[in-house]
Amino acid sequence: MDYAIELDGVTKQYANFSLKDVSFKVPKGSIMGFVGENGAGKTTTLKAILNLIRMDKGNVTILGTNRIQEDCNIKEQIGVVFDESYFHENLNVNQISKIMKHVYKNWQPAEFDMYVKKFRLPTDKVVKEYSSGMKMKLSIAVALSHKARLLILDEATSGLDPVIRDEILDIFLEFIQDENNTILLSSHITSDLEKVADYITFIHQGQIVFSESKDELIYQYGVVHCKKEELSSLNKKHIVGVRTNQFGCDVMVNNKKELLRERKDLTVDNTTIEEIILFKVRGE
Ligand SMILES: Nc1ncnc2c1ncn2[C@@H]1O[C@H](COP(=O)(O)OP(=O)(O)OP(=O)(O)O)[C@@H](O)[C@H]1O
Fold first, then answer.
1. Is the distance from the beta carbon of residue 210 to the nearest atom of ligand 1 less than 6 Å?
2. 284 vs 119 pLDDT, higher one
3. Which of 172-176, 193-197, 233-237 has the lowest mean pLDDT?
4. Atom 3 of ligand 1, residue of closest alpha carbon
5. Which of 85, 191, 197, 209 is the most exposed place for a label (fewest CB within 10 A)?
6. How far apart are CA 55 and CA 37, in angstroms?
7. For residue 263, is pLDDT > 90?
């Protein structure tokens, strides 16, 4: 398989936080959803990928190079959206388009105008008069208008209303119809990722908990409801987390097919990405 991004043992130590030995791969032609709680290390990981911070250890290969800082051609092929706006506050969209022509060799003014209309961005206002959602849409419009092959988006859809979020998710799905295009998208909104992601990488306290195909996760994981006294009879190797309540236990398992082969008496319910994450983080 061809990969757009490969992280191998990426480590970064801050005073009160460390990214520990982070390794995962983003296959070309796919959307990878990157999830984790506030402060789990998502932005730090994305910055390490883009060489915006210096890693203590590890290696990142992005679009085939591990020297992104020296490779302007590769930089041109990456569209980046972080949650802060990086456009000058006194510019309007027409002025931004003129500037971008000098930043990107492949700047597409007509495509940019199309996104400006689609995202209903006001052309008569300057950036400082934009709402935070408008600023986010502007960043996404720019990222999509220079023939990028890879989009790296940090919480890019989080501040947007459901209608425009849905439109943008459809644009992302369209973008990866070209199998050379890839998206790495961090988000708290797991329903968005359930809609568009092919793979999910979950980071918790600076460490990767899993990086797997979304369909496999949903197909393999499930929830067993049982009485507390039945818990010890379940094969431990399948158990990811347990939550007890006044009626009994909910048990997240990671191989429902095998468990059902071993225990024909059990019923295993289907689950969601959100539930898997909650069990991993908050399960006993
Ligand atoms: N430059 C820095 N110096 C010291 N600590 C930092 C620095 N940048 C980030 N951190 C710490 O690293 C941890 C992870 O931050 P990061 O922004 O990567 O999390 P995140 O998963 O993106 O969170 P959120 O979902 O809230 O954006 C936090 O505890 C943060 O305070």
1. no
2. 119
3. 233-237
4. 14
5. 191
6. 22
7. no
ipTM metric: 0.97
Strand order in the sheet with 248-253: 239-245, 248-253, 222-226, 268-269
Question: Global pTM?
Answer: 0.91
- Residue with the smallest CA separation from ligand 1 atom 29 is 39
Average pLDDT over residues 143-169: 91
Domain boundaries, the chain: 3-212, 221-282
Which residue from 44, 53, 184, 185 has its CB within 8 A of the most atoms of ligand 1, so it is best to mutate?
Answer: 44
* Percent of the chain at pLDDT exceeding 70: 99
Q: Does domain 3-212 match CATH 3.40.50.300?
A: yes
Atom of ligand 1 nearest to the CA of 45: 18
Q: Which residues pair with 183 in a beta bridge?
A: 31, 151
CA 19 to CA 41: how far, in whole Å? 7
pLDDT higher at 65 or 6 = 6
Cα of 44 to ligand 1 centre, how many Å?
6
Q: What is the mean pLDDT of residues 271-280?
A: 90
Q: Say yes or no: CB of residue 43 within 6 Å of ligand 1.
A: yes
| pLDDT range class, residue 234, cuts 50, 70, 90 | confident
Q: Whose CA is nearest to atom 9 of ligand 1?
A: 44
- Centroid of chain to Cα 77: 18
End-to-end, the C-alpha distance of the chain in Å comes to 36
β-bridge mates for residue 33, sequence order: 185, 200
